[in-house]
């Protein structure tokens, strides 16, 4: 039996009179890629905030490899092996690419030489080695997205939450990001990804969770989701194509 890595159990989050996430549950197994899709405002990023400790749920629990991590700090959750990226990429602009990635590596590596070695490996993995000594502020958006991914990878996670890492990328850059994510899974990572680029997420994901107005309305394989009338009505407004 494939080991269960992450369990989200009936998560709910309210902001005043707005329920941003309502009673959402799902599981993620070892080395699985789970996609999360839904319209803007569906609650996807808030869900990531709840899982990764940036928001505390009003109800529900989150379990990482069987351990209850509900309400723990983002740093504590990262130390346990779950790290995330953010939609809005905000690197340390005056620091170099390599220095930015070293910051992530310091989560587990107290020695500068060790942290730098981890950072160098990650920078090469995401294709930023030619830009390692360049200030982060000078990078175009495609390279900044890779840098955001690199900083997360430098924490040496077991589970990686990716929040729209392909937003703003060119078709060629999207293809490169897809290849990188596949290599990460082949290397042993478990991945949960929020993405609006439908062809990308449908080709990457083993299973897909669909959210609408804070609720999970469907879960299944990409093929099952593409044929689900509730998904088509709530999100796509017609036939879903991802070939």
UniProtKB/TrEMBL annotation:
Pfam family, one: ABC_tran
GO molecular function: ATP binding; ATP hydrolysis activity
GO cellular-component term (any): plasma membrane
Stored Gene3D superfamilies: P-loop containing nucleotide triphosphate hydrolases
Presence of keyword Transport: yes
Key words, A-Z: ATP-binding, Nucleotide-binding, Transport
Domain ABC transporter, residue spans: 6-238
PANTHER family, alphabetized: CONSERVED COMPONENT OF ABC TRANSPORTER FOR NATURAL AMINO ACIDS-RELATED (PTHR45772), HIGH-AFFINITY BRANCHED-CHAIN AMINO ACID TRANSPORT ATP-BINDING PROTEIN (PTHR45772:SF8)
Name of the protein described by the UniProt record: ABC transporter ATP-binding protein
Species for this entry: Hydrogenibacillus schlegelii (Bacillus schlegelii)
């Amino acid at each position: 039996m494939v080991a269960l890595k992450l369990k989200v159990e009936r998560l709910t989050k309210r902001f005043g009179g707005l329920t941003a996430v309502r009673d959402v549950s799902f599981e993620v197994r070892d080395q699985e890629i789970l996609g999360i899709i839904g319209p803007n405002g569906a609650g996807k990023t808030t869900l990531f905030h709840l899982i990764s400790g940036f928001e505390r749920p009003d109800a529900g629990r989150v379990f990482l490899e069987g351990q209850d991590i509900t309400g723990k700090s983002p740093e504590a959750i990262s130390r346990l092996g779950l790290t995330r990226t953010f939609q809005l990429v905000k690197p340390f602009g005056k620091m170099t690419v390599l220095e930015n990635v070293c910051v992530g590596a310091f989560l587990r590596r107290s020695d500068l030489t060790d942290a730098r070695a981890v950072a160098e490996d990650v920078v090469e993995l995401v294709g930023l080695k030619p830009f390692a000594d360049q200030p982060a502020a000078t990078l175009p958006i495609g390279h900044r997205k890779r840098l955001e991914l690199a900083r997360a990878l430098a924490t040496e996670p077991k589970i990686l939450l990716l929040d729209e890492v392909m937003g703003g990328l060119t078709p060629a850059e999207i293809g490169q990001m897809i290849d990188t994510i596949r290599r990460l899974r082949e290397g042993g990572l478990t991945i949960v990804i929020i993405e609006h680029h439908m062809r990308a997420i449908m080709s990457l994901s083993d299973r897909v969770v669909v959210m609408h107005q804070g609720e999970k309305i469907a879960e299944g394989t990409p093929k099952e989701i593409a044929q689900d009338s509730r998904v088509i009505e709530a999100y796509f407004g017609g036939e879903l194509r991802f070939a």
